[in-house]
User: What shape does this take?
Amino acid sequence: MRSLTDIKELTVGEIDGLIETALDIIANPKKYEQRCDHKKMATLFYEPSTRTRLSFESAMIELGGNAIGFSSADASSAAKGESVADTIKTVACFADIIAIRHPKEGAAHVAAINSPVPVINAGDGGHNHPTQTLTDLLTIKREKGGFENLTVGICGDLKFGRTVHSLISALSRYGGIKYVLISPEELCVPEYVKDETLIPGGIPFEEVRDLEKAMPELDILYMTRVQKERFFNEADYLRLKDTYILTPDKLKEAKPDLCIMHPLPRVNEISVAIDSDSRACYFRQVQNGKFIRMALIMKLLGV
Amino acid sequence: MVIGQITDGIVLDHITAGRGMEIYRTLGLGSLGCTVAMINNAESTKMGRKDIIKIGKIIDLDFTVLGYIDPGITVNVIRDGKLVKRDHLTLPERLINVLKCKNPRCITSSEQELDQVFRLADTQTRTYRCVYCDSKAK
Ligand SMILES: [Zn+2]
Assistant: This one.
């Protein structure tokens, strides 16, 4: 049974295939509206993430299927102390495919090895969130036409931001990518990203502190949220959260076709004044998330 | 130096010098109730110095644990005074319930009935990672 817990489980060819399918869904939605007739997806959300859950559920519904599930741990049997493995084996009796989000790292792996039906990791703590990465890739494809020869700026919390690590790992498999990693020193990219992806791949990257200075050369600016729940103390969070805020005047030197992305939800790292700028892609990115999830559900269900 | 010949038993040869005691302890050789000879710092043409352990009984050995502690070990099984089997150990691909994940955010920290599983991530640096959270074993 094929599941998806880590973006690295997909080959470049498979990712390209999912993107092709998603583009076809966007072009011909009618063709897909009954692909998952009478099929059910269970969305098991042990921690709340309304956006991700709604994206999965609407993806399933647009394919003609249905969605069941829970949206927080207290609404589930986990509150009574049931293990992930037992919950999965039970839910698999009702559902054809499962999307799981859990605060603990590796929970999706536990789910996948215990499930007779496909499991999609919808985020396991700070570890993996492969459908966010697929969403980001589809967005870059649609906005930029491809993945070659791009200078990609990534700004904010590069240490704990899981979306950043898997985006770097996935994008690095394409040619001609250059990274500008913009963050305070405390939140810079962990060593393992450099040791396992950037350095062995010979991928050019620079680590800088100043967002405005980096702006002129960027084709993509990926902003991230400084996540409160990843900090152990409040003072560190308060000190760092406002460090990198994107405002219209910081965009003065930016390329006219810059693509501004953000995994959302944002706190205040992108000023709302930027939302009306055509370079702001983050709400289109949300929409792409639904299309790529539709493509993934079809692939895993083999329909 | 010759240490008593074994009729039936196991000789762990080519142990990295200094690791003998760790293996002795990990395998619980002290509680076997048979002769166990520990030879430290023996001369070796291949390794300079090595440790050797001779066990006077044929026992089931956990090759996985042994290979993890010291992948260069040769295991010789002797029966009726003759060498009947020789195994060269390698670094195991997976370790089950040998190491424990120390990442407090790992699912194994809240669901303790899960097996602790580590996979060999890099043979050169002998790096093992938790299959659940990918944390490096320390
Ligand atoms: Zn772990």
User: Anything to note?
Assistant: Chain A touches chain B at residues 83-85, 102-107, 109-110, 124-127 (CB under 8 Å).
